[in-house]
Structure formats: structure tokens, C-alpha cells
Amino acid sequence: MPNGVNRAAGSPTTVTLDGKTYMMEPLTLKDFGVIENEYLKRRPNPLKAVAAAKDVLSEDDYDKLLTQAYKDAVNVAKATPQEISEWLDTRDGVVFSIWLSLRKNHPELTKEQAEEAIQEMGEQQLTGLAESRDVASGIDELGNSTGRSTGPENTKQSPSSSSGGKGKRKTGRKARSSKS
Questions:
Q1: Sequence ranges of the domains in the chain
Q2: How far apart are CA 111 and CA 127, in angstroms?
Q3: Are 22 and 104 in contact (CB under 8 A)?
């Protein structure tokens, strides 16, 4: 695994999908903006959810839920670094971020093709792919340095669960705290 100048320089790395080798570029700040937009696009709108349930709710329950939905709607357009980090550890987050990294050198690769190739992977292969993404992008435990990270804010791990291959998965990457 790379750990020298390539890490500090944010050099690309190679990955293999469906027997084909691709050059994977590091994720940039702009890419993280695109990732956040994708994450937010997938987040349900609380106002729409309450409106859809109006017919099965009492007027009192509807009013209470609508009031709460207005409060919650303020947060629909924002995501914390922790939320993004956790989403990047899901199968959907890995697929999207890997495709984003690969399309820089391989514009012919569609998101659907990347998803199909990644869906075929087992958990160990998926974890290795996510770790390669993290190392190339400087978002693994070492970041873009060659030294070991220290302090409790850099050692918190993302929670994991299993939901039929589309849920959260543990990559071993340490979640970054919004305090740093």
C-alpha cells in the first residue's frame, strides 16, 4: 500500500474492476461537494413524507408532524462531515465515490457500469477498494502525511450494519471529526 511521496502528492492508484485495470484519481474538494450533493439528493424530504401521510393521520397528528417536518426541513440541505463519512462507507457511497474517481481518466465508464462491477464484489474486495480510494484521496487514518495520526478525534470509527449489500459497511477507515 502506498505510504510515501505518492500519499503527500495525492497520486492516483490503480484498481481492477471486472478484470479491467483502471487509474483511480484522488477525490478532490470539488468531488466532496459532488458527493455531498448526491448524499443530500438521496435524503428524504420530511415535508413530502408528512404530506404523503396526510390521509391516514388525524388532523392533530398531521399538524404536529408538519410542525416537526418544517423544523427538520432546515437540515435537509446540509450534511455534516460525519454523515458524509458514514455514507462513503456504505455500498452506495463506495460505488458513487469510486465512479467519481475513475471517470477522470475513464470518461467512458458509466455509473451503472461501475455499480454493476462493484455489486459483484464480496465484502473483502469492497473494503480493499474503499481503502484504495481513501489512501489515494488522503482520507484514511494517515491522511496525506506519512506519519501516524494521534488524538481521540481521529480514532472514532463509523458504525456499521448490514442490509442486503446496500447498507453500511466497515472499511477500517477512521471517521474524521468535525472538530479538526
A1: 5-41+79-143, 45-73
A2: 19
A3: no
The phi and psi torsions of 157 (rounded to 5 degrees) equal -95, 150
Which position has the grid cell 475513464? 106
* The predicted structure's pLDDT at residue 47: 87
Stated as kind and residue range, the H or E segment containing 137 is helix 123-137
Cell of 180: 479538526
Dump pLDDT digits (tens) for 116-165.
988 888 889 989 999 989 888 877 766 655 444 444 444 334 333 333 33
* Residue bearing cell 474503499: 130
Does pTM top 0.90 for this prediction? no
Residues 135, 128, 18, 27, Cα dihedral to 10°: -20
Cβ–Cβ contacts within 10 Å for residue 160, how many?
Answer: 13
